[in-house]
Amino acid sequence: MATIQEIVSRETPLAPGHRMCAGCGISPIVNTVVAASDKPVIIANATSCLEVTTTIYPFSAWKIPWVHLTFENAAAVASGIETAYKSLKKRGKITDDVNILAFGGDGGTYDIGFQALSGALERGHKFMYVVYDNEGYMNTGNQRSGATPFGASTTTVPAGTHSFGKPQWRKNIVEIAAAHRIPFTAQAAVHNLLDLYNKAKKGFGADGPAFMAVLQPCTTNWHYDSELTIAYSRLASETNFWPLYEVENGKVHINYKPKERKPIEEFLKGQRRFKHLFKPENKHVIEEMQKMIDEEWERLLQLEAAQVRF
Amino acid sequence: MSVTKPLTGAQATAEAMRQINPDVVVAYPITPQTPVVEFFSEFVANGIVDTETIPVESEHSAMSATVGAAAAGARAMCATSSQGLALMWEVVAATPGLRLPIVMPVVNRALSAPINIHCDHSDSMGAATIGWMQIFSENAQEAYENMFLALKIAEHPDVLLPAMVLQDGFITSHGVENVKVLGDGIVKAFVGDRNPDRYLLDVKHPYTIGPLALPDYYFEIKRQQEEAMINAKRVYLEVGNELSRLTGNKYPYFEEYRTDGAEAVIVVLSSAAGTAKDVVDELRNEGKKVGLIKPILFRPFPYKEMREALVKFAVVGVLDRSMSFGSYDPLYADIRNSLFESERKPKLQSYVFGLGGRDIFKSEIRQVFNELLSGNLDSEHHKYIGLRG
Fold first, then answer.
1. Pick from B272, B311, B313: which is nearest to B290 by CA?
2. Architecture of B2-247 per CATH?
3. How far is Cα A20 from Cα A221, in angstroms, rounded to an integer?
4. Nearest CA in chain A to B199
5. CB 3.0–4.6 Å: which of A177, A226, A255, B122 could bond B322 by disulfide?
6. Does residue B258 come out as left (phi exceeding 0), alpha (psi in the -120 to 50 range) or beta?
7. How confident is the model at residue A1 (pLDDT cuts 50, 70, 90)?
8. Predicted complex ipTM
9. Chain B residues touching A67 at Cβ < 8 A
10. A9 pLDDT more than 90
11. Is the domain covering B254-385 a CATH 3.40.50.920 domain?
């Protein structure tokens, strides 16, 4: 098992000088996931923060092969790369072994890229898809996505006199991916890079598609001080808002169980998108959120205990 | 060197793809393109080709996976039609900017609404200005040979642009004709292997493709794309000459049929040109001075050569199988444009025919020639052929 020191001492795929926001967790996610590969990695990147901040022509922060096509098709592009790899290998036109990795934000994954993702998972391409999930369209200024949590205020579903923000719970993308009966799916978060690394290692080693959702708090549009990204990520798992777990060959394993789960307010406070929930008239929203989180956690524990395959 | 086989246009295209034996073919069904990918998939299932296929979940993913495979270094193809082309349009538009030489057969079909599965050119005409070469085919033989032509031009280092090879839905795609098929070895030698200088699977030379380019660079990149399109026009003739040596056929920008001394000429694309040739023959036998021009290379459009051809005639009728709503119809607009620099201009008349697969009859084409010869023309408004009411 690698140590954090070993992981961070490896050559990173991203050169310094990319233009991510101060306090953004995307680059540690990318560097950690790629570090877990024992083969050269080729990346297919959906239109997203990661794409626009790393490849402003004529510069590129990528030290490894990288392609961006459009917003909703990273999984389809990756399936094309994987098939080309198989074909060129078979025909003796290339010799190197590679791992193929797709990155997308939550908009490009839960929403507009959902069909391409499902198709690629169903066809069984050997690749890993990683969504860095900042719970909305953060690159374009905090619009609602299928990943936006209940109660969050976004620019397309703002809180107001007749609205407490998003009235729906987020889509459970990890379970949806697992329901494709792929060998490995996982939920991880940027504050626990060792856990992320171990999951990425399993994902690359899987005999078929792998999928990971990685929580990536957004300093810009969750709107908190840029030194607090890791703290918010940690709080998300300590409150059970974002459990760390994996589904390996269909079986659920929870990687982190808080000794005493913190109340959801601990995670919500200090984030502008949830500021309105602390008004007296929105008390019920926090209560409902807490109830849903506890129910979801209980359900996850049951899934783990049952060991019934997805 | 070649054998004659009874093939539909779709089969002829699949036959060309079999002989090209691409590294990757991406398949998604859409009427009337479906048999192209079905016939090809049969070749794969029976080990006749060792291409890897991806049976994707949508046309959008079809083009996306094709681009992914091509960026990775493969010779990759997919085929489409109508709604499928419309759905993949976003990625179709992105492909030329990536300079990936993808060849895509397009089986022309009407666009919804109303939904209609039959032939017209409204699908590909909508994609005529986004940087793909477009080569139109009159029949199965041309659909077959144009695949090789398109591939060699697309992959030429001075071009590196994607190309659509078009044929008429059902009329060509599902009609059986005798097709002269080249020997497999001849095709293999002609098309060779794709040898990109940069590709993703060349992991020792990491390569960024598809970056963000802002106002300081985007413009120059698009200008380079246009240079490539200009080169494509030259390379078309060069590759055509090479292919000519194998097939014995010619590959001009457009075909001139019995235009010597013609007064009235019809310009029409694809399968309707075949019908019109019959009418030209009949009218010539009756002593009427008529002829036909069939554009083949539609993008890039050979304005200068077309002008030099057209100025010889007194009157030109342009038959479009699609409309550009609110403007001149697409083929007519280009013909009209091509004449601007000329002092001497033929009289022009625009016609629309065959939308949604409506048949065009010889009697109607005869009527068009009669109208052209009568001089009762209005170059600012199109007339309809075969329209009720």
1. B313
2. 3-Layer(aba) Sandwich (3.40)
3. 13
4. A65
5. B122
6. left
7. confident
8. 0.97
9. 68, 71, 200, 208-210
10. no
11. yes
